[in-house]
Amino acid sequence: MSKIPVPSGIPDPNRWKALVFIALAQLMVVLDATIVNIALPSAQQDLGISDGNRQWVITAYALAFGGLLLFGGRIADLWGRKRTFVVGLVGFAAASALGGAATGEAMMLGARALQGAFGALLAPAALSLLAVMFTDARERAKAFGIYGAIAGGGGAVGLILGGFLTEYLDWRWTFYVNIPFAIVAALGAYFVIREPSGGRNRSPLDIPGVVLSTLGLVTLVYGFTRAESEGWSDVTTIGLFVASAVLLGAFVLTEAKVKSPLLPLRVLTDRNRGGVYLSLGLAVIAMFGLFLFLTYYLQVVKGYSPVKTGFAFLPMIAGMIIGSTQIGTRLMTRVAPRWLMGPGFLTAAVGMLLLTQLEVGSSYAGLILPAQLLLGLGMGTAFMPAMSLATHGVDPRDAGVASAMVNTSQQVGGAIGTALLNTIAASATTAYIADHAAGATTPTAQKLLQLQGMVEGYSAAIWWAVGILVVSATIALTLINTGKPQMGEVAGSGAGAGEGAEDEVRIPVVAH
Questions:
Q1: What is the pTM of this model?
Q2: 59: helix, coil or strand?
């Protein structure tokens, strides 16, 4: 695993302070993924954005973030993680100010793309920074448990905060709220973080790799986004998937031949790292679809307000915090990672299985609350060791780009999840309404039929999510074969640690 040097083997005295600022930055990025969704209807009305272009407020961010992640990870390796982290924070704050002050559609979409671009710098730098500051196994487990809880539960916190800001202040505050987060995190990082030397990759930048990976990932993410709105058989959608396959294929060929690749293929071919990227990406497909369906179910079917909807997600946040900081942290140094990840994903699958029983009149306390607790516990337990293994066995010079691969698998997984599960739900809804339309002869009956059709669609899609989580668990249990980490300081750390020592079990560096 990673052998990032720690000066004289002495833990950084500022490591716990650094965790506060790194976690704050992560919370800001995760909040932004959901907080804007709640504000979107109000922003659309104020700025005169058409229904056809409304999705671009979300898509512009996703495309820039997903497309530039590998480039951002490589920049972190080249510039240094601390510098990349601070630049990412300052840029994200500036882009948020621009979004909050937007006077029209173009300004809003530009601000969202800029947020995505600076987020792609920030995200790979954050956990690779955290990793070099915690060298003791127990401390590392606690630090990553806290970070994992924020990474997992921050999205639901965004729903609560977004609801409050939109309902009681103004949608523009869903952007402005990022500015104090970013300023505090940037100042804290600048004065507190001391990045160990020797971990930079000063090789020349692989320009063909940057261009091909960015275009390939943007095309792939946009293909799934378009499939959601235009359908899978749309000619342009199919063209986008073909183009992304060609571009990403060319990227792999390029990386195999160039002297200093953007993404060394050795980062992908290790079975433990590959197992993490694959199982985590699949799990995110299931989770993203669920957030979408539960939000619509609670607001449209149950009539919850945005604030009440946000609070309704609290059991999932609580489950994630307990799973990550209590179960994951306590067991991470005692059992092999796959025995946390596999059962974790299976526990989440059981929670998802409960939600296949959703009906128009389902009880929140009797069905949705226990399902969310199981989902949160399972995902919190699984996410922590998954992030810990993200740079398993990787050279410290490649830590940033290995971290970026986790974000990339999550971003692509999110795009697939939203498009795939939404399409399944929409098809099931249409079929249900068509089958039962003859019996709905009054306006009340027709409205009830629409709600029943929606819930039937959600249930059909959630069945797929259950299956995807079972596949995630199977991949984690079969591909990931590293043993439990050794206690004490990271083995093999130091400038002279060579790649030949990879067979030795070491404390994994976490990345997200």
A1: 0.78
A2: helix
